Amino acid sequence: SHVMATPSSTSTFVHLFEWSWADIANECEAFLGPQGFKAVQISPPNEHIAGEQWWTRYQPVSYELTSRGGNRAQFIDMIKRCKAQGIDIYVDAVINHMAHGNGISIAGKTYGNKQYPIYEPKDFHKPCAIKSEDYVNDAWRVQNCELVGLHDLDTDSPRVQTTIAGYLNELVKLGVAGFRLDASKHMPAKDIAAILKQLQHSPLIFQEVIDQGGEAITADTYLNNGMVTEFKYSVKLSHVFKKGRLASLKGFEKDWDLMPSDKAIVFTDNHDNQRGHGGAGDIVTFQDGKLYELANVFMLTYPYGYPKVMSSYNFNGDTDAGGPTEQVHQSDKLNCNDQLWQCEHRKPYITGAMRFRAQTGKSQSIQHWWDNDKNQIAFSRGDLGFVAINRGSQVMNVTLQTGLPAGVYCDELSRTSANDCSGKTVSIARDGKANIALKPMDALAIHRFAQVN
Ligand code: LM2
Ligand code: CA
To answer: Which residues are bridge partners to 308 per DSSP?
Structure first.
């Protein structure tokens, strides 16, 4: 039976959206392992419909490991090479539904009339379409009807539950350490519980439930099964960074009515809402440049939830567009640039904030909160670290209590690696106070384990 795996408070993971298995293996070795990320969320590895759009991955034809990400051998190689770097793999498991209509899969198989290599018509709910008003007033329809025409599996049936559990168990046997359960809101929590009960190990589970309030189905129903995506965080954090006041972030966990920290998966943006799909709003994304980096700095340095860094590609306004055809890692170059893969996780401030979280995770307390009532804030992580963010248009120049012992500290965000002190430094006096100077749209994060001797 299922025992819940929980992440450590020092951990951060990254969604390498639409990256191939070969690229992910290379990234684990070249960057993620050496920098200290905990895990990668990969795009769905199951056999899916043919087509160029990114969302073909969300239309399963079978649970065979043939996808745009690569084949089974490449999948296994990725897991091994990432594991050797200390990096876990989280699979995006699409288990609420199968592909819409009739067609051909990426592996050349045909499907149609609810006939798939692993399912037959009796494994599905009677067809009905989820209408937008159902989300507000009809929980049954949200879970038993079809989401955008995707044939809805009868997740209440023992045969379907065993088939899904078989898929997840197979992945765990290959070394997969966690699952994002896609479209969890569209499955009754008790069906998910019955599937998880059949798992032979304890992978980390996080359920994708879009709950921004006001709907018939609420995220809290799912907390007994594992972690849950906290969409309120993404929307509200985006709002504050784009058009609010950073000072209003003081005590946000209570103000925003969020789920408990140890249940929450948090993110600035995700693969859906960054392009106007699932639960979109006015979301902060890579297109916001420095503002986006500062939002990530806040997410990563503040002790709430298990943070997921989004790693995207330029889609030039085409919200259906698949990823670049160029691989990220080519023999002579790295295709991380404005036109192709965005590699947000490699932006120095984002990577640096991830390292800060790894170093300060032992202290969950926020102390010495300071703000100027506008867009300059600062806080300490107990006596382990101190953060300041200036999203304002004025220079920040203020003497603050840091809660840290006297010394000269290296800023984790602006140094080029964890072994040098090439960026800003902060001098803390005997009384714990320091002069904090930041240009507009800048931040710093210092901690006990990066000091000038
Ligand atoms: C999810 N979470 O609950 C994913 O995060 C989201 O990306 C998925 O939608 C969705 N649930 C189903 O797994 C994406 C995409 C949709 C796309 C579906 C299926 O956002 O636009 O729908 O995947 O590929 C597409 C078409 C839609 C069509 C449907 C069926 O956009 O117009 O509906 O395929 O052919 C007839
Ligand atoms: Ca369903």
So the answer is: 13
Asked if pLDDT for residue 278 goes beyond 90, the answer is no
Residue nearest to atom 24 of ligand 1 (CA): 55
State the complex-level ipTM: 0.98
Q: Residue 1 — pLDDT band, cuts 50, 70, 90?
A: very low
As residues whose CB is below 5 A from the ion ligand 2, the structure lists: 96, 143, 152, 186
| Same domain membership, residue 399 and residue 319 | no
Contacts of 325-330 with CB under 8 Å at 24 or more apart are 327/20, 327/22, 327/23, 328/19, 328/23, 328/26, 328/27, 329/22, 329/23, 329/26, 329/27, 329/30
Q: Same domain for 212 and 303?
A: yes
Query: pLDDT band at residue 280, thresholds of 50, 70 and 90?
Result: confident
401 with 432: CB under 8 angstroms?
Answer: yes
Q: What tens digit of pLDDT does each residue of 104-146 get?
A: 999 999 999 999 999 999 999 999 999 999 999 999 999 999 9
For CA atoms 6, 21, 277, 97, give the dihedral sign. Answer: negative
CB–CB of 198/165 below 8 Å?
A: yes
Mean residue pLDDT of the chain comes to 97
pLDDT at 2 over 60: no
Domain limits at 442?
A: 366-452
Same domain for 350 and 370?
no
**What's CA 328's distance to the chain center, in Å?**
20
Please say which residue of 360, 382, 413 terminates a domain: 360
Identify the sign of the CA torsion 366, 370, 375, 376. negative
Provide the 3-class DSSP secondary structure of residue 151: strand
CA–centroid distance, residue 332 to ligand 1 (Å): 36
Ligand found nearest the CA of 144: 2
